[in-house]
Amino acid sequence: MAMAVVLMVLMEVSAGCAALTKPKGNEKMPLVFQADFEDGKLDDWQATDPAAWRIEEGRGGKVLSLFGKSDYKPQVRSPYNINIAGDVNVSSFVMELRMRSTRPYNPNRDLCVFFGYQGPTRFYYAHIADKADNVHNAIHIVDGADRASIAKTRNRGNSWQDGWHKVKLVRDVDKGTIEVYFDDMDTPVMTAVDSRLKWGKIGVGSFDDTGQFDDITLWGRKVIN
User: Fold this and answer.
1) What is the pLDDT of residue 168?
2) Which pTM does this prediction carry?
3) Across residues 29-56, what is the average pLDDT?
4) N or C: which end of the chain has fewer CB within 10 A?
């Protein structure tokens, strides 16, 4: 009887661990931020132009929408439409979210994920576009100068057709590695190695297009500044 009880407890613990399994790459990092926008509030977000953003209906609930071009002139060549999440600073992290372009097809249309954000002239961003060229569909750094690609590897482009797409970013500050995943969560579509900005906030947006965002989840190592 005692053995049966022990086995039942072990089975329950095992099932609980399976239910809480985290995406590959962040097994040792705690959950530090989530946003599904169901409360309809953007109080904890900091946009380059709040008037270009709103909460809309989508995906059976509410989503964050970048619906217009921001009235914003960056100090150096970098994206116009940026919305930074709260006060959470992380070093290494894994970030997952859903993204949808709302611009009609254009090979240069993009959506971006920002990270290592320390200010308007110091941050990284993953620029995800339908086609790749010298500036589109790459990982960039903005470090007191115009944005510059730091992509080590990348594919030829990622189609924003067919509605919502799942995106994942994985950063290991100790190794300097950055990986971006698009729909396929096992094989990155672009990578980089860079350690100049070792911590910062995360965010979403676009260089100069429109789109929607949902189910943002961040696991990471928090940094207190």
Assistant:
1) 98
2) 0.88
3) 97
4) N
User: What DSSP element (H or E) covers 9?
Assistant: helix 2-19
Torsion of CA 80, 103, 134, 214, to 10 degrees: 70
pLDDT bucket at 23, cuts 50 / 70 / 90 = very low
φ, ψ of residue 2 to 5 degrees: the values are: -60, -40
Predicted confidence (pLDDT) at residue 12 exceeds the cutoff of 80: no
Instruction: Please report which confidence band the pLDDT of residue 225 belongs to, taking 50, 70 and 90 as the band edges.
Output: confident
Helix (H) or strand (E) holding 10: helix 2-19
Cβ-based burial of 211 (10 A; exposed 0-12, middle 13-18, buried ≥19)? buried
Structure tokens at 38: 């169901």
> Which residues touch 72 (CB under 8 Å, ≥6 apart)?
48, 49, 80, 81, 82
DSSP string, 89-141: -EEEEEEEEEEEE-SPP-TT-EEEEEEEEEETTEEEEEEEESS-SSSSSEEEE
Mean local confidence (pLDDT), 50-66: 97
Q: Which domains does the chain have, with CATH numbers?
A: 29-222 (2.60.120.560)
